[in-house]
UniProtKB/TrEMBL annotation:
It is found in: Membrane. This is MFS transporter. Residues 24-424 form the Major facilitator superfamily (MFS) profile domain. It comes from Hoeflea poritis. The keyword Membrane applies. Keywords: Coiled coil, Membrane, Nitrate assimilation, Transmembrane, Transmembrane helix. Belongs to the major facilitator superfamily. Nitrate/nitrite porter (TC 2.A.1.8) family. Residues 424-451 form a coiled coil. It is a multi-pass membrane protein. The chain crosses the membrane at residues 29-48, 60-78, 90-108, 115-134, 154-175, 187-206, 243-260, 272-293, 313-331, 336-354, 369-392, 401-421. It comes from the Bacteria. PROSITE patterns: MFS (PS50850).
């Protein structure tokens, strides 16, 4: 059954944190931002780590794969947990438990222990599924695409911010406090882990599962399906071919982003002969596009949905993915910095718009198993990153690896045409979309009437004062 009282406006209520939907939106993107920051926090410091632990190119490649491999399984589990116990408890647990390997990586002393902690840290990448789930249950169909895209995009922004912030934190410990480089990168990760742990506590107290309360309360009132139905719905969702198509598609956009986040700093350092901070700044340009790019993908997804229904959302997804593949191939051929950077930015724009477009489709696949769908599709991103990671651990040059990935993405874009919806679902979602827009207009009319009445009251008050006889 459909949850009620979802927010029908995001930007119009953006600062109204008294609304649980808006407060949850801000908590989800901030929590995901910190998780993404920690997930790839070690990437811009890998030059230091590589030298200290004497890692080979092959071993660096395995750490890239390891950082995203465990997330595949974590996202599948997290989606099920969201449906069963709710996003609030799931996120709280993930943040607080995930903080320990982030801080614990400082104990690594060789390749094996470093890889072990890198694997464990990857579990916090499952935070993406909770972020998308939580905004999906809080926002109505007319804005769910942009709400999902913005919360995820601003969270992914952590992957860009970490590229230049972590070298700065590292520099503070080394240059400011005089620690050695070997201690500096370890202390830097401990700072991030502590921040994640504190955010987990805040998430528990400042959010709730749905607009009308937590899942336990809603189930007690008969407003949600019982827990025992969750597993059955999960397996039914896995039998839907559209879920697996989106699994592949998300691997071709988010999987590529994860790969670039893990490799960009080293790529610019090795291929363009840049220092640690300079390479980090170049790599950050890719992630920083999340400020608006993924949001654009969601906004256009909602607009295409308004014009052409659910099939319009799928067509917009094709456009983004196709352009991403072309832009990635272009970037792979750039061998001078002043050409490589602009092509990286264009490539980043379409990559993140494709991610936003994907999750403007996901909420409409199976509403009874939203966690399952979000989890499987999200896992596809990491599966794509794992497969892409093998290209960067072999003998192939990294620019050629990017070229191959661009070709794969271009071909995968045509899968979007196979994400289809029944005429009945198209009509149902069209009605829901219209209802949400009517609710938005009603809220705006109520606000305008309230402002009009307040204005008239002020005018009447002034008129009464002018009528009073002079004393």
């Amino acid at each position: 059954m459909e949850l009620q009282h979802k927010a029908t406006s995001l930007w119009g209520n953006f600062f109204k944190v008294t609304m649980v939907q808006i407060r949850t939106f801000h908590m989800t993107w901030f929590a995901f931002f910190l998780c993404f920051f920690a997930w790839f926090g070690i990437a811009p410091l890998m030059k230091v780590v590589r030298d200290e632990l004497q890692l080979t190119k092959d071993q660096v490649g395995w750490t890239i794969i390891g950082s995203v491999a465990i997330t595949i399984f974590a996202r599948l589990l997290i989606g099920w947990l969201c449906d069963r116990i709710g996003p609030r408890l799931t996120y709280t647990g993930l943040l607080m438990l995930g903080a320990f390997p982030v801080m614990g990586i400082g104990l690594a002393h060789n390749f094996e222990t470093f890889l072990l902690f890198r694997l464990a840290i990857g579990a916090i990448g499952a935070s993406f599924v909770i972020t998308q789930y939580h905004t999906s249950v809080m926002f109505a169909p007319n804005v769910v695409g942009q709400a999902n895209a913005t919360s995820a995009g601003w969270g992914n922004l952590g992957g860009g911010v970490t590229q230049f912030v972590m070298p700065l934190i590292f520099s503070v410990f080394v240059l400011g406090f005089g620690f050695s480089e070997a201690i500096g990168w370890r202390l830097s990760m401990m700072v991030v882990g502590a921040a994640i742990f504190c955010t987990g506590i805040a998430y528990y107290f400042w959010t709730q599962d749905a607009p009308d309360g937590n899942f336990s309360e809603l189930r007690a009132k008969g407003l949600m399906p019982a827990k025992k139905t969750v597993t059955g719905n999960y397996w039914r969702a896995l039998a839907d071919g559209r879920v697996w198509i989106l699994f592949v598609i998300y691997g071709a956009c988010f999987g590529i982003e994860l790969t670039v986040n893990n490799t960009a700093a080293l790529y610019f350092a090795d291929y363009f002969d840049l220092g640690l901070v300079e390479a980090g700044l170049m790599a950050a340009c890719f992630g920083l596009m999340n400020i608006f790019a993924r949001t654009l993908g969601g906004i256009f997804g909602d607009n295409y949905g308004a014009l052409w229904g659910l099939r319009g959302r799928a067509f917009w997804l094709f456009i983004c993915l196709f352009c991403e593949g072309l832009a990635l191939m272009l970037f792979s051929r750039m061998n001078v910095l002043f050409l490589a950077l602009p092509s990286l930015i264009v490539f980043s724009l379409f990559t993140q718009m494709a991610e936003g477009a994907t999750y403007s489709v996901v909420p409409f696949i199976n509403k009874k198993a939203l966690g399952a769908v979000a989890g499987v599709v999200g896992a596809g991103g990491n599966a794509g990153a794992v497969l892409a990671g093998f290209l960067f651990k072999g003998a192939i040059d990294w620019n050629d690896a990017f070229l191959i990935l661009g070709m794969v993405v271009t071909v995968a874009s045509f899968l979007a045409f196979f994400v289809r919806f029944s005429p009945e679902q198209e009509e149902e979602e069209k009605a829901n979309f219209v209802e949400a827009n009517i609710e938005t207009l009603r809220a705006r009319a109520d606000k305008a009437m309230k402002e009009f009445e307040e204005g008239m009251a002020v005018i009447r008050s002034r008129q009464e004062k002018t009528r009073e006889p002079a004393q």
